[in-house]
Design a protein that fits this description.
Blueprint lengths: L2 H11 L1 H24 L1 H10 L1 H27 L15 H4 L3 H18 L2
Helix pairs in contact: 1-2, 2-4, 3-4
Amino acid sequence: MTVCKDVKAFSRTHERIADFFSLLAVALLFASIWAITRYYQAVSVWLLHDVLLNGAILVTVVVVDVLLIFGLLAVGSSRFGDENERCFGTFRGRRNHSGSDGIFSTWLSHMENVSKKHR
């Protein structure tokens, strides 16, 4: 069983925990925004002391923060969807159609299926 199927099974059986992961993602997002606005000057001064090392550390922290937010959102939202839905599927319109009418009709049917799924 793949990791995606394990996460789907876990979040469907424990919906409260999945809701908690979604709440953690939103809390981490707002905490990140608060920390950026609160400590902007201190981080700027710290960054100027050694731009290469401190810049690499800052970029690493930002990337980890974004990945954590997306990971928590993925765990929280993985309980939605059909059982037979593929994991890590892409939007099929990018590969199958060439031309403006084909892409638009594929996008339109995709959007209709999304709205049916979330009603």
